[in-house]
Amino acid sequence: MIYETIPQKFNLTNYLIDECNLKQGRKEKNALYYHDETYTYGQLDKKINQYANYLKSLNLSKGQQVGIYLNNSPEFVFLFLSTIKAGIVPVVINPLTEEHILLKILQGSPIEYLFTTQ
Predict the structure, then answer these.
(1) 8 Å CB contact between 37 and 74
(2) Which entry of 3, 18, 20, 33 is 20 to 30 Å from 98 by CA?
(3) How many CA atoms within 13 Å lie on the side-chain side of 77?
(4) How many CB atoms sit inside 10 A of residue 56's CB?
(5) What integer is the mean pLDDT of 89-106?
(6) What span, in angstroms and rounded, lies between the C-alpha atoms of 81 and 103?
(7) Under DSSP, is residue 71 helix (H, G, I), strand (E, B) or coil?
(8) pTM higher than 0.85
């Protein structure tokens, strides 16, 4: 990829899901495999939009940060891609991080919300 061709406004989620897959006719192709679950690009797009709308309902605006403290899972993928789609900054925190270190991270950052199953 030639860097001069990247537009000023570029959204990675829109590019990966919409441009590279949905507009190429891959709506029914499998995009995500997790244990015995599969999600097509169409289903992935729907989940990403649902999560992005939820983030907007929290009055989060572009550039604000949310923490993602989740194990590898479809929900991690949905949340990560939806934050990017909404212009929100995902701060991925290793789910093996000990609680006292997690507290230091949260106290020293502008993270607005922390998403976790812990």
Answers:
(1) yes
(2) 33
(3) 17
(4) 14
(5) 94
(6) 25
(7) coil
(8) yes
